[in-house]
Amino acid sequence: MIKGMTGFGSAECTSGNVKAIIEIKSVNHRYFDINYYLPIGFGSLERKIQQLIRTQLQRGRVTLSIKITEKPSSTIVLHKDVVKKHLTYAKQLKREFKLDNDLTLSDIIRLPGVLESKETLVHPDKIWPSLKKSLTKAVTMLEQMRKSEGRSLCTDVGNQLKKMSTQIRMIQTRSRVILKDKKSKLTVEEFSSVQKSLDINEELARLKHYIQEVKALLKSSVPVGKKVDFIAQEMQRETNTIGSKLQDGVVSNAVISIKSKIEKIREQAQNIE
To answer: For residue 116, how many C-alpha atoms fall within 13 Å in the half-sphere facing its CB?
Structure first.
């Protein structure tokens, strides 16, 4: 069964005292394209992530976001050498300007460079095993949405094909009526010449063949969106030829109807993976 290209998936990841949330979404796109929104230092995982996603998605614009929600607290570092320098300068100022020594502990820790808060970095390679499992869950959730969309697309395209087949039968019937009428009014030689110019059997046969091809593609488990779009273009060409050969009101209306169905199929082909 065909798949669409619109979907969303999310999952939580826990690895030790690190927690993260993964979100992945996809929309229509002619090719496969992925955008990353990763924590600092996680760029090294892009290749692994892409390989994992490509096992299930072949087409679409994908956006992946990984956010760290919990991690070890920041580390506070005391720079004693900086404290010594500050105190040395303080003593010099005291002697030189005869100042009172009224530095307190709270004064010292507020001095520039005495205390430094170092953020704890999460190493991507350490949490990758857990991250991989969670990412797989998120991609599976997205894939289920794409399959659901595919079922809807399959139903809609199938309905368009049925309506096209009805119009094709109408054109066939009308073509016989037109030829019968021409035959009754023309000589054998004249009718022979006209018959060739009005013959649309080849075009109708191709249209029927294309309809069967699209039906077969709708049952496929591999990406077929581009193929459906190409076949729809061929359908359009054959339909235009029919319209140009048979200048008849009934046929013209049927041709317009078929072209409308083909256009809808082409629109849906942009949504099919």
So the answer is: 11
Helices and strands counted in the chain (H then E): 8, 6
Beta strands at 75-78 and 115-118: parallel, antiparallel or unpaired: antiparallel
On the question of pLDDT at 47 being above 90, the answer is yes
By the 8 A CB rule, do 206 and 237 touch?
no
Helices 188-198 & 124-185 angle (0-180, nearest 10): 170
Please tell me the number of Cα atoms within 13 Å of 83 on its side-chain side: 15
What the chain holds in terms of domains, given with CATH numbers, is 7-72+124-145 (3.30.230.40), 75-118 (no CATH), 148-269 (1.20.120)
The CA-to-CA distance between both ends of the chain, in Å, stands at 11
199-233 per-position pLDDT tens digit = 999 999 999 999 999 999 999 989 999 999 999 99
The CA-atom distances, in angstroms, between 271 and each of 1, 140, 153, 268 are 14, 19, 8, 5
Angle of helix 225-245 versus helix 124-185 axis, rounded to 10: 10
Distances (CA, A) of 62 to 9, 97, 144: 11, 68, 15
Write the DSSP symbol of residue 221.
S
User: In this structure, what DSSP letter does residue 273 have?
Assistant: -
For residue 59, give the DSSP letter.
Answer: S
Amino acid type, 53: I
Decide if 265 contacts 232 (C-beta within 8 A): yes
Look at residues 135, 113, 114 and name the one whose alpha carbon lies nearest to residue 36.
135
Residue carrying the six token digits 């920041």 = 74
